[in-house]
Amino acid sequence: MISGVITKGINGIPKIPGDKSISHRSIIIPSISNGFCEINNILKSEDVMHTLNAFKAMGVNIEDNGKKLIIQGKGLNSLNESKIDIYLGNSGTSARLLTGLLSSQNFKSVLTGDKSLSSRPMQRITDPLSKMNAKIFTTKGSLPLTIERSNLKPAEIDLKIPSAQIKSGLLLAALNTEGETNITENKITRDHTEIMLQSFGANIEIKKIDKKKIIKVIGKKELVSNNIDVPNDLSSSAFFIVAALINSNSNITLKNINNNPTRNGIILALKKMGAKIKLINNRTNNNENICDIEVINSNLHGCELGPEFADLMIDEYPILAVAASFADSPSIFRGLKELRVKESDRLKLILLNLQNCGVNCKSENDDLYIYPSKNYQIKNNIIRTDFDHRIAMAFCIMGTKIGPLNIEDSNSINTSFPTFKKELNNLGGRIF
Ligand code: S3P
After folding, report:
1. What does DSSP assign to residue 140?
2. I want to staple 10 with a disulfide (CB 3.0 to 4.6 A). Which of 104, 112, 256, 427 is the partner?
């Protein structure tokens, strides 16, 4: 894919797709509930389709009527054993959440994934699950993994790594486990699973003590389905927000965007950099905060972000790094260790690709330093993505300022935002 320079800014109202995290949960939770669930605006991307196909393979009746997805839940303990290995493509969320859920089912499952997913750490979820007596065999700590049938026991689990995927996998395991499981989080992670479980009637109680959050689940209570309106994805919006900020004569509005305070760090960070971003029409739907976002091009300043920001916006550092490259002073983003175990080693690829674009940057102890300049001389016009959708989209936005940039293996964008190119081009982008 080639991303060319934008000449007249980007203007208009892009159609941002449904939120990826909420879409996964909108398939998983209704499938193990009772009754019918109609889901509006689900994200139809490759990652989410892998979750959907997994539940179809386990006997869940899922129908797409063109407008909505309709899921007929099977209850907590009635999924069927899949006749084939469950292939999850590139999707870490599917892998971690399903490992938890399936360890509590009465059958054996095998999970597989693509090259990137098969190199990502799974012990972060299998270790705490083994405290609940789960029997899971990984391949050197990664996929393929085999989940043997086992009787789970409730447990007290202190999360060592801040991760919504781990927390959610454990919550799903605890739902189908007799007795009281307590999961303690020491840092904030996105809370879509807790929000949805509460509205489906799970026996779950949340206590906050200082920065700790303790989630108590009493298992074996059947869930009751609710209809779901999936809001649009802030992480996907971030590429358009930054494109509008760094290109003069830009003015865009993003509609119906999820503004959950456990993951809206990108808005806080960009505002700290002087971005003209307005959140309007704040409202809630399915207990998620929603708003519309107006953005106009702005003079950005560099900033220092502590590691607490990483908990609130881990997926947005590739695009934030692009924004920082066009600020009028340097930036330091601290505590980015978790970036190394995403769909790619994102810290490595941000550095390599910014340097390819002529940006002076470095990392020390997992902190990222960016020293922007007024003019960039491209040094190597091949953006390496390692098939990572967010690296590909972030550097497409880089191309809108310094292009044409050659983005390798950009098909990965289908993981989360299949209409990205069309939407950007509709607003004045030049991607071909
Ligand atoms: C996700 C959680 C995050 C995020 C990922 C989606 C989720 O990962 O990076 O893209 O849907 O739970 P961790 O919280 O595991 O770091």
Report:
1. T
2. 427
CATH 3.65.10.10 intervals, the chain:
2-18+231-431, 20-220
- Model confidence over 35-62: pLDDT tens digits? 999 999 999 999 999 999 999 999 999 9
Mean pLDDT, residues 365-369 taken together? 98
Model-wide pTM > 0.85: yes
Which single residue is written with the structure tokens 């003079």? 299
Kind of pairing between the strands at 68-72 and 61-64: antiparallel
Q: Based on the residue annotation, tell me whether 328 is a catalytic residue of this protein.
A: no
CA dist., res. 33 & res. 221, Å (int): 10
Domain at 2-18+231-431, CATH homologous superfamily: Enolpyruvate transferase domain (3.65.10.10)
Q: How confident is the model at residue 210 (pLDDT cuts 50, 70, 90)?
A: confident
* Ligand 1: residue whose CA is nearest its atom 3: 164
CA–centroid distance, residue 171 to ligand 1 (Å)? 15
Q: Which residues pair with 215 in a beta bridge?
A: 183, 206
Q: What percentage of residues in the chain have a pLDDT greater than 70?
A: 100
Pocket test residue of 27, 190, 262, 393 for ligand 1, highest count of atoms within 8 A of CB: 190
Would you say 18 and 49 are in contact if contact means Cβ atoms under 8 Å apart?
no
pLDDT at res. 416:
97
Q: Helices (H) and strands (E) in the chain — how many of each?
A: 13, 25
Architecture per CATH, 20-220: Alpha-beta prism (3.65)
Contact assessment for residue 60 and residue 74, using Cβ atoms and an 8 Å cutoff: yes
**Mean pLDDT throughout 355-369?**
98
The alpha carbon of 379 and the centre of ligand 1 are apart by a number of angstroms equal to 33
